[in-house]
Amino acid sequence: xxxxxxxxxxxxxxxxxxxxxxxxxxxxxxxxxxxxxxxxxxxxxxxxxxxxxxxxxxxxxxxxxxxxxxxxxxxxxxxxxxxxxxxxxxxxxxxxxxxxxxxxxxxxxxxxxxxxxxxxxxxxxxxxxxxxxxxxxxxxxxxxxxxxxxxxxxxxxxxxxxxxxxxxxxxxxxxxxxxxxxxxxxxxxxxxxxxxxxxxxxxxxxxxxxxxxxxxxxxxxxxxxxxxxxxxxxxxxxxxxxxxxxxxxxxxxxxxxxxxxxxxxxxxxxxxxxxxxxxxxxx
Length: 283
Fold this sequence. Notes:
With 283 residues, this protein is of the alpha/beta class. The protein has helices at 3-32, 68-80, 104-111, 135-143, 179-182, 199-202, and strands at residues 34-43, 51-57, 85-89, 119-123, 147-148, 152-156, 161-165, 188-192, 209-212, 240-244, 252-256, 273-282. The strands form 2 sheets. The chain has a 6-stranded mixed sheet with strand order 1-12-2-3-4-5. A 6-stranded mixed sheet has the order 6-7-8-9-11-10, with no helix packed on it. Strand 3, helix 3 and strand 4 form a beta-alpha-beta unit. The chain starts with a helix and ends with a strand.
């Protein structure tokens, strides 16, 4: 082999390393940003002309890789949306022993800037059950003005909505939730559940819209790799909008929020963090 060709081959590992470093850098920067995903749709399940705005936050995963400034930005952007209903679909902290800059008091002070006029609802995720069995997370959310729904429902009469909150499927009691009994055929049924693949079960009931998180939208989107890192109960409905058509019944919509934080690695690649803003109008 000539010295010239040998030099080319020796350069390949360096180029690959540079490419990997560049991808990691882009992934790290991507993990620090977030966008608002706007969704609009009409439904006959709400009274004609009735409008409601739902903002969804999910998978904050507060911890050592999450800066206070980012949470402040998320809260400010969410408040600016002026939602009628604000929902949180699980995983407030990433790990109990890696809080980073956060304290309970700081979290509450930041969450206190969320829109006061909005009806705030929350369900728990699998990370919320780690450490102390979800007690801390539930208490913080309640103090911040959220109603934490654990296999229970609440009627939001002013919008004609029945909100059904399901406990975490993997580590909580979500599998015991009597979803069918909690629905109201006369109202728009909104299901909140951390794990999106619960939709295959919930589609048996008159659910109009399911909001979930859990998957982080894969978090790192690389060919031949992404599908291997999807979490249990999150490998069918992964990111964005889905419609489950039910023969002889009303269709069920599913939206999977990509979340705000990260877990395991502080990286996102081709999968930005998001706040979801859903505008629904009755027709």
